[in-house]
Design a protein that fits this description.
By secondary structure, the protein is of the alpha/beta class. It has 2 domains: 1-49, no CATH class; 51-272, NAD(P)-binding Rossmann-like Domain (Rossmann fold, 3-Layer(aba) Sandwich), CATH 3.40.50. 50% of the residues lie in helices and 11% in strands. The chain is built from 9 helices and 6 strands. Strands 3-2-1-4-5-6 form a 6-stranded parallel sheet, with helices on both faces. α4 links the parallel β2 and β3 (115-119). It is globular, with a radius of gyration of 20 Å. It binds NADP nicotinamide-adenine-dinucleotide phosphate. Residues 68-69, 71-75, 94-95, 98, 121-123, 148-151, 169, 201, 203, 262-263, 265-266, 268-271 line the site of NADP nicotinamide-adenine-dinucleotide phosphate. Residues 1-18 form the signal peptide. Keywords: Signal. Belongs to the short-chain dehydrogenases/reductases (SDR) family. InterPro entries: NAD(P)-bd_dom_sf (IPR036291), SDR_fam (IPR002347), TIC32 (IPR055280).
Length: 284
């Protein structure tokens, strides 16, 4: 029934838009429909699948993961389920109290969970450097890095390093974090033979960036600030980061891969703060 509905909508769209425009739209329309209807992909999971369902039967208890933005939303749920499956978690957070509460909640559900909360503000290069040196001094292995934290500023703000806040938090911060932790990830993968994974959480909104999108002067001194544009730029940069780093990791034959992922549309803090952003009407 769902497949028939998609075919019907494809046929209507082809008539309405013509085949040239259709060829440009086909990918996104099919994806959007699959998403809205919760149709499972080739791996058997779709937008209605939960993290618990996806990880059922897997017990990765020998792994250590760092996840940014685990104090709320998608990051908090990812942390909860990874901890439930036995992964040792390191949660860098700018708000230690909030992170402590998430840790307590996870421990109530999974008393054996091993969780370390450490301070890090992704909008500050100094804070990221400080976190990385503190983490590395613990001597822990590192198998998984989930670059998940995200921000969408309504108004123009500069970080202490004088970069636009949304771009700095979502992209520059995660770029630096990954760069500083990559050696540990490659070392862990080499020593253990366990494939290391880096995940950049991005968004389909990256498609909104026009060809001439990256104008760095304009980002630092915009004539008129558009928060959604800054967010889209940061998310495109997350993808470009993953693509280039994937190439480099392959070239050096490292047993570590990097991928970027759009998590779907979920009513989390980032969405609740920005009603109207293609999100109203979705409630996953
Ligand atoms: N929700 C969606 O529909 C959707 C769609 C596409 C992509 N995404 C992406 O999914 C990721 C997770 O977002 P979410 O939806 O779960 O939003 P969320 O509930 O607002 O969570 C954002 C997380 O990022 C953290 N964060 C923000 N600025 C930070 C900073 N300077 N330093 C450290 N941590 C910081 C927040 O920490 P605090 O608690 O300290 O604020 C929070 O833990 C983001 O990358 C977002 O772009 C979400």
């Amino acid at each position: 029934m769902q497949i028939a509905m998609i075919s019907f909508l494809k046929w209507i769209s082809r008539l309405v838009f013509g085949s040239y425009i259709w060829s440009k739209l086909e990918f996104s329309i099919t994806d959007a429909l699959r998403y809205i209807m919760g149709i499972a992909g080739p791996n058997g999971f779709g937008s209605n699948s939960t993290a618990e369902q996806v990880t059922e039967g897997i017990s990765p208890s020998h792994l250590t993961a760092i996840i940014t933005g685990a104090t709320s939303g998608i990051g908090a749920e990812t942390a909860r389920v990874l901890a439930k499956r036995g992964v040792r978690l390191v949660m860098p957070a700018r708000d230690l109290k909030k992170a402590g509460e998430v840790k307590k909640r996870i421990k109530r559900e999974s008393p054996g969970a091993e969780i370390t909360v450490m301070e890090m503000d992704l909008s500050s290069f100094a804070s990221i450097q400080n976190f990385c040196s503190n983490f590395l001094s613990l001597g822990l292995p590192l198998n998984i890095l989930i670059n998940n934290a995200g921000k969408l500023c309504r108004s123009f703000q500069l970080t202490e390093d004088k970069f636009e806040m949304t771009f700095a938090t979502n992209y520059l911060g995660h770029y630096l974090l990954t760069k500083l932790l990559l050696g540990k990830m490659v070392e862990t993968a080499t020593k253990t033979g366990v494939h290391g994974r880096i995940i950049n959480v991005t968004s389909v909104i990256h498609r909104w960036v026009a060809k001439e999108g990256f104008k760095f002067d304009d980002m630092l001194l915009p004539k008129s600030y558009n928060g959604t544009r800054a967010y889209a730029l940061s998310k495109l940069a997350n993808i470009m980061h993953a693509k280039e780093m994937a190439r480099q990791l392959k070239e050096r034959n490292a047993n570590v891969t990097i991928n970027s992922v759009h998590p779907g549309i979920v009513k989390t803090g980032i969405i609740r703060d920005h009603r109207g952003l293609i999100t109203d009407g979705f409630d996953k």
